[in-house]
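quick one, 678 residues, struct below
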Amino acid sequence: MRQPHTRTSRRRVVGVLTASLLTLGGAAPSVAVAQEHRTASPARAEGLALTPPMGFNNWNSTHCGPEFNQSMVEGIADLFVEKGLKSAGYQYVNLDDCWALPARDADGKLVPDPVRFPGGIKAVADYVHAKGLKLGIYTSAGTKTCSSTGFPGALGHEYSDARQFADWGVDYLKYDNCNNQGVDAQQRYRTMHDALEQATARTGRPIVYSICEWGDNKPWEWAAGVGQLWRTTHDIQDKWSSMLSILKKNLPLAPYAGPGHWNDPDMLEVGNGGMTDTEYRTHFSMWSVMAAPLLIGSDLRKASPETLGILANRDVIAVDQDPLGKQGSVVSSQDGRWVVAKEMKDGSRAVALFNETGTPQRVSTTARAVGLPHAAAYTLRDLWQHRDYNTAGTISATVPAHGTVLVRVSPDRHWSENPPAVELATDGSPLVVAGSPTTLTSTVTDLGRTSARDLSVSLTGPEGWTVRARSSARAHAVPTGGALKTRWTVTAPQGTPTGSYDLTLRAAYGAVGATARATGTLTVTASVVVPPPSGTSYLGDLPWMSATNGYGPVERNTSNGESAAGDGRPITVGGVVYAKGLGTHAPSEVTYYTGKACTKVTADVGVDDEKGAKGTVSFEIWADGTRAASTGVLTNAMPAQPVSADVTGAEVVRLVVTNGGDNTDSDHGDWANARLTC
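---
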């Protein structure tokens, strides 16, 4: 689905009845007409997409903008070669919507836009092929494509369009789902399958067939004999909540994936700027564990070294491209801590330790739990650090917020040549009042079969911070399962602004039989906070520690406007206007430091009265790790509901809004008159 990014356009508009096509200048596209073109033809070339396709698609970075043109596409092909992406496995350079003119020619043929593609599509294909790469193209299984302009779709023109694509030298077709006029999905997509087979038989050019049906009709249940990959969800967006939602929808579909038939959770957003590098590494790691197609969605001409480093990580790509073709399956999932394991052809397991929460979490499993046979020890390779360790069987790490640790584990008889794996952890993320020391305890645990020898630990902070060890930071040897605990004090200088700051915990150690000294690091986030004022204060007037929101920023004392700060309107629930409060859009979370000095949070909560808000929400107040209060599901037809929570003794209070269990877009939740008593 490809639509303009506006508030109303996020709602998909389905096609009207086929009969309505009679008003579009003639008879409706006839399936019977398409049937006439079907002939007994040799089977399409075998062996297409035996591993998930890898390449590029322009849509996520350009949409229909003027920068999408022949020069860009050929430049991407150049960069595939120059930046080592071709040698890493990327091969398809794919065009998305808006490459054609808005109307067919007199013979009913598609016409490339002469401004965007002055040489035509065949010239682009020839250029891409000369680089040893392949070209992909886009159209829709409807009368028009998905852009607001609405370029010609292939419904009723499947055989003619497939012949054009093959004659141009196209190697990959993305077939979208807009303006489908109510024609049965399986019928539409099978017709293009047959057309592509016929075109292949005529030209000898096999075309990978990507079914972009958005998962509406469960294509995983019927599309394995039709195309090589099928979309399992609606479009991804360049933000954490979108990527996470799609990830969770795609994970349960592992049984349907395999060589030549892949679940497609949509293109990569890596490098487009809406997520952090940590989140992009999670995006790339989890798509690879899920054996998903890896189609770069950022403009590589502007890619940072960090973006290229993520996209070109060959250890991670090898997980995605493993010839066994297994999609990773969920081993465990609890409180936002996920273990997902993928069986590999060589008998190893790729294991993703994934933390969806907003704070660092310990995520742990064992070699036996992920399906490996019993062994005295195992070799564990960290695929982002590119280092090998040995483990006695535990696979564990402190995973940063929204992060993923990706490892490959095997019962390798050469395990003793590697140093032991160690796990670095702390007793939490310190909350620091500037000028006052805060205590922190670090732990380094030996997970290996051999001892970590001559272990030393250090903790460093930003320039000007004081960090002191208050207990031993060294150990002669730490045996299997043993740990070195070190207590530290951390002090931020007076006047340090509130916000998040990184501390770095480092461990260095050796091992008998290991050829080099090993190191490990853990980034610890310290939050500089301000003690809450005495008395009762409006939360919209107090500094928060952190705030996440479904769309746009959380707003102070106005409703959420979804885009930039300050674009909201007066908070209004059930016809009542409130001067104070917080305007959010589910899912959202706002965190306040209360320093064990506060007793109560109160608010009147509900769905904002904005035009078109029809979603549901639910409100929760958390005191440290305990849910202290919650509402039922609220709708925009309901007046504001009072909510109150006892937060006595809590160091941190979190205000959470969920969508109440549905997936509608208009989940605007207001914390009207939200107050904190200390």
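Residues 1-45 have pLDDT under 50 and may be disordered.
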